[in-house]
Amino acid sequence: QVQLVESGGGLVQAGGSLRLSCAASGRTFSNYVIGWFRQALGKEREFVARITWNLGATYYADSVKGRFTVSRENAKNTVYLQMNSLNAEDTAVYYCAAGVFGLKNPETYTFWGRGTQVTVSS
After folding, report:
1. In this structure, are residues 34 and 72 in contact, taking their beta carbons and an 8 Å threshold?
2. Among 9, 13, 84, 96, which residue has the fewest nearby CB atoms (within 10 Å)?
3. What is the pLDDT along the chain (122 residues), one digit of tens a residue?
């Protein structure tokens, strides 16, 4: 079992930065891939980035590559999503998720947080 809680969302101006946190708990989360997804109003859920807990291997969607960085802090059981150079297209509810074989497809993740709102203003 894995429990996930996102935090760090809020309102930011275009060009600014935010850091989202995903606090994980459970006995088996270290065996999982942790993914970040986002869903804008009226749009489908979109893959953002992922990281493997054990090795820290990362993968990014083309839309955020070079702007976003996913990382983990083992001592705090937390995964971060550092978001830089934000623009209006980044406005969405951001979710973290955990899965044994997490890829880009949301169906490959088993556990989900409740999400945190990120709003980028012009």
Report:
1. yes
2. 13
3. 889 999 999 999 999 999 999 999 987 677 899 999 999 999 999 999 999 999 999 999 999 999 999 999 988 999 999 999 999 999 999 999 999 988 999 999 999 999 999 999 98
